[in-house]
Structures are given as C-alpha cells and as structure tokens.
Design a protein that fits this description.
Length: 105
C-alpha cells in the first residue's frame, strides 16, 4: 500500500508542477489553487508512505516520478524540446528510481 500511496504522491507532484507553470507566477487564481492543494496532498501522501518506506527510498522515488512526469508533460503539452540529451537524462532518472525500488526489496 505504501508504494501505491507513494506513486499517487508522485503523480500529484506532476500536477502541481504543471499547474504552477499555468499559474503564471501565482497570478492566475484557479491554477494557483490547484497548485497549492495538490502540493499539500502530495506532501501528505509522501509522509504517509514514509511511515513504512525508508526516507532514502521514498523521497528519491517521489522526486523521480515528479521529474520524469514533469519532463513528459512539458514535452507533450507545453511543446518543450525533446533532445537526445534530455531523453538520456530521463532514462537516468528512471534507472535511479528502479535501483532505489530494487534496493528496498
């Protein structure tokens, strides 16, 4: 259950990062509210997951999900550059997350 909670927390991290971008520096009300509410929910779920999972596993996995998700959302929805170097960086993030997950098993 902790892994599912951690995954949802990571997805919410992607949502708040995207909505923060859409808030234009917190000048737009609805995206700002979405940012703050999903940020709080993400942190609460991360804290719940860390009741079972070690900090050294939960936090890197959470940030990895957020980093990879933000990268994908940026490319797909915001038209950000998809270069070989950025894809390699994303692959390294995924590799790190997998290694942290395996190390916990």
């Amino acid at each position: 259950m902790a892994w599912i909670t951690l995954f949802i927390a990571g997805v919410l991290e992607v949502v708040w990062a995207f909505s923060m971008k859409q808030s234009s520096g917190f000048t737009r009300f609805v995206p700002s509210v979405i940012t703050v509410s999903t940020m709080v929910a993400s942190f609460v779920l991360l804290a719940q997951a860390m009741r079972t999972l070690p900090l050294g596993t939960a936090y890197p996995v959470w940030t990895g999900i957020g980093a990879l998700g933000a990268f994908v959302v940026g490319v797909v929805f915001l038209g950000e550059t998809l270069s070989l170097m950025r894809m390699l960086a994303a692959l390294l993030v995924v590799s790190g997350v997998i290694l942290f997950s395996i190390a916990e098993s």
